[in-house]
Amino acid sequence: MMEEVKEVTSTLSVHGHNIKVTEVLKDGDTLTFLIVSQKLSGTGEHHVDRTYDDFEWLQQLLFSQEDEPGIQGVIFPSLPAKASANPSAKVMKQLGFLGLGEWQLYCKVLERYLRQVAAHSILSKNKAVEIFLTSSEPPGRQRARKNLFNRLSQAVEERRKEGYKRFLDVVQSEQKIAVACAHFSASLHLCVEPGEDPDKQAFSKACVQLSEVFDSIKKNMTSVAENDMNTLGLGLDLESRCQEAEKEMLFRRTCKLVELEAARRNAEKAKPLKKAAMEEAKKTAEIEFNDICVVAKQEVHRFRAARVKMLQHTLVQWCEKQLLTAKESADQFNQQLQAFRGIAP
Amino acid sequence: MAASSDRIPPPFPDTEEPGVCDMADGDRDEGEDIFVICVYGSFAFFIVGGGARVTSVRKKELSTSSGPPPSSSVTQSPAAMQPSSSLQQLEEEEDEDIFDVDVAVTNPEKIGYVLCPCICFQTSLAMFRSKAFSVRRRYSDFLGLYEKLSVKQSLQGCIIPPPPEKSVVGMTKVKVGMDDPSSVEFVERRRAALERYLQRVVSHPSLLQDPDVRDFLERDELPRAVSTQALSGAGFLKMINKASDAVNKMTIKMNESDTWFEDKFQEVENEEQQLRKLQVVVDSLVSHRKELCGSTAVFAKSMAMLGNSEDNTALSRALSQLAEVEDKMEQLHQEQAASDFFIFAELLADYIRLLGAMRGCFDQRVRAWQRWQEAQSTLQKKREVEAKLLWANKPEKLQQAKDEITEWESRVTQYERDFDRIGMTVRKEVLRFEKEKAKDFKGQIVKYLDAMLQSQQRLVKFWEAFLPEAKAIA
């Protein structure tokens, strides 16, 4: 959406809708992400590598666009928690779905973040975005200023909804079953007995075939868990962080309203000497608040529509993938069953 | 499809099968839970340990349209044959051991505080006094049967199938009338185990001949079995191991003329170990499945709540649908867990106990050998006594000595014969056991695959139903 921004003031020289985080490299404890974007002029691509700290740098700069009217009304795209190559148990818990598997989901989330930023009418104008996406040098390390924006993506796991946590449990159970099946399949091979005795051979063959059956079951379960993670899991993750971002914005707006109320009272009560200054302050506060409200309304509208679309896409994808997996497994089991019955009973 | 002509079954008795289980049927129709052990006779079609499934094949063949036999028992028969197998396939299997009695156990009925399975059966075997029967038995009756058989038959070297384990906790819950899922599961587990036990007993040629077994199946009232030991799983194996220890402690080590026995014994021990390992893995699989069941149920609830609080109507509906899909999946997982459990976990547990029983047989043989050796050495001593008496010239004691020698000579011969006989029986039993085992496992695998296939097909249907809902979210 909004990829058609061709305003003169836009500084972004790449397409926003197809930014990709293609790879993640481990360097000691740090993870480095490879980001590819297509030039608007159509003459090629930018390849840059960035660490999580670079993402945070970008986020900070986006937060600090104070001269942009109504910036506080923006629902900022949210970053996931920081991940390292060997995450501690606590970090894994924070990451939730993003910690299961090999960082593919994490990359997807970062990718989505960049796409949302690039597509945002206000945020994409920030020079930091251009630098982030195209500069071959790593961007600078600006000290994070304590402001209202810093509360994002902290302690998200406590605020996660029930649905997220329950689904995480489901996926983890599925993974455990896959492991148990693999274990059973391997153990069955140990039961194979040598010898020419026909009954022994029959038993050994049965064990081998059962081992194959459990191998298929393991594959099926692994696919089911992966489908769950990559679609609904990812969707729930995005949804939860987005909800937080919206709340943050509304909170900022409320804070501004409180400020405005204070300014109004001050202007009323001001002694004649300070009256003019207080009136001035009140007017500024009013303008700022109105700007925020205008932006906020647009944002909420845009945001809600995007959310429904995202959830729809997620559910459809999830359903389609699980349907495919179920059909494939049914075929597989059917084949094995036929093969089994075909052998003399 | 050519039927072997010499195997044409005798005409089916006038009393139809449903008539057999008249009372059971009537009760079944009302959805009562009566535990009915149905022993269905087969003609020459029978397969060792086959369940009521073969009966349903016969039903097809006879085109009776009566109600199904207690089909809840069908799913639990270990060496099940597929109902869809053709007549020809059945007849091919006639070449194997053929038995004319089939046993199935269905729902238990509580009489007072006691869970009483009801047995009804029919058979064409002449040895049974009638073709169709129905009796009630308590769990302690099963134990009593096992005790009697152990005493008699194990001396011959037969492998006596061990009965299901006693479980104080489980039974108390049932007696008290608790209706929670774990006690329901316990009853089902007990029922299935009793059925497998009986099937193994009746499929054993010598055991079937045993009068105690026939009494058990036929008599209306059995004398109460007293002093049935608490045959827990651990208790049973402890018993076997104690016997083994006693054998090992004997000073006279058996010199094995036939390495077959030594090799087999080693194999049996190895196999028992392997099965135990498998059992551990299967147990963990079952517990994970149950976990998945639980998490799916909770997830379904949370999705339902999400759906309720959602503003967008299409999304709300989709989420509610999702909650329903997840509910159905929980059901599916539940069944899969049961499948894992009943098909494999119980099978492994049974075979571990059977292998223990087999070890017992080997020990019996060694003891028989020891008895023989001891008799021989006693005979030797008696001969020495006789020699001494001859030398000391005490004629009055001489006759006694000679009598004793004769007695012990015959004992030696007897024990030697016993030993040989047990040896042969053990050999036969081992071979039969291995055949059974291969068939049993194969049967279970087919059942399992079938169950897996069906559950995947149901899953496909669930997802196909959900897809349009998901797509409809605007």
UniProtKB/TrEMBL annotation, chain A:
Residues 1-140 form the PX domain. It comes from the Eukaryota. InterPro entries: AH/BAR_dom_sf, PX_dom, PX_dom_sf. Keywords: Protein transport, Transport. The keyword ATP-binding does not apply. Pfam families: PX (PF00787). GO terms for biological process: protein transport. One of its GO terms (molecular function) is phosphatidylinositol binding. The keyword Transport applies. Belongs to the sorting nexin family. PANTHER family: SORTING NEXIN FAMILY MEMBER, SORTING NEXIN-5-LIKE. This is PX domain-containing protein. It comes from Gasterosteus aculeatus aculeatus (three-spined stickleback).
From TrEMBL, chain B:
Residues 1-26, 59-93 are annotated as: Disordered. GO terms for molecular function: phosphatidylinositol binding. The keyword Phosphoprotein applies. It is found in: Cell projection, Lamellipodium; Early endosome membrane. The keyword Membrane applies. It is a peripheral membrane protein. Pfam families: PX (PF00787), Sorting_nexin (PF03700), Vps5 (PF09325). Keywords: Acetylation, Cell projection, Endosome, Lipid-binding, Membrane, Phosphoprotein, Protein transport, Transport. Residues 77-224 form the PX domain. One of its GO terms (cellular component) is lamellipodium. GO terms for biological process: early endosome to Golgi transport; intracellular protein transport. SUPFAM superfamilies: BAR/IMD domain-like, PX domain. InterPro entries: AH/BAR_dom_sf, PX_dom, PX_dom_sf, Sorting_nexin_N, Vps5_C. Residues 72-89 have a biased composition (Low complexity). Belongs to the sorting nexin family. Involved in several stages of intracellular trafficking. Interacts with membranes containing phosphatidylinositol 3-phosphate (PtdIns(3P)) or phosphatidylinositol 3,5-bisphosphate (PtdIns(3,5)P2). Acts in part as component of the retromer membrane-deforming SNX-BAR subcomplex. The SNX-BAR retromer mediates retrograde transport of cargo proteins from endosomes to the trans-Golgi network (TGN) and is involved in endosome-to-plasma membrane transport for cargo protein recycling. This is Sorting nexin-2.
